[in-house]
Amino acid sequence: PPTSPPLTPPHPAPPPPPHPSHLTPAHSRPGRSIATQMPQIRLSLGVCPQTNVIFEALTPTQHLHLYGALKGLAGAALHAATSSMLDHVKLTERAHTAASALSGGQKRKLCLGISLIGGSRTIFLDEPTSGMDPHSRRAIWGLLRDQREGRWWIRDPNPEGGAVADPGSEPRGR
Description:
- With 174 residues, the protein is α/β, with parallel strands linked by helices.
- The chain is built from five helices and four strands.
- A four-stranded mixed beta sheet has the order 1-2-3-4.
- β2 (122-125), α5 (134-146) and β3 (152-155) form a beta-alpha-beta unit.
- α2 crosses α3 (75-88).
């Protein structure tokens, strides 16, 4: 019986893209290996998800202490980082209030503080200012601008978030 010729694509396949480890953005520094340096990578990440992931019974101070300790802070350094972050996110007056009693905007500020504490170098931001009034929203984008040195912001692609990933960039919002 006759055999069919082998199927061939009409055009040659493009070459495969280079392996991600070969890609280096213009503003990057030498990276870390996920094979051998995962603990250090985890300590350098911060996440501010779209939903508030907080413990309603804990205060902002307790949250920041918990997450700061998870990032390796202890003793005086932990207390200083917590105090500084409460000041940065404008929650000093509510530092000892249960999270359940915070407004929606204050909860967002707490989530942002959690993502920044401990010197996070890569921060994932998913609508960090959702639910905030315009004044608070501008203050948070100002905080992010002030905190941008040496950090990578990876933001959602919606109009509030601006660019998707930009090292040390100025966040853009409405």
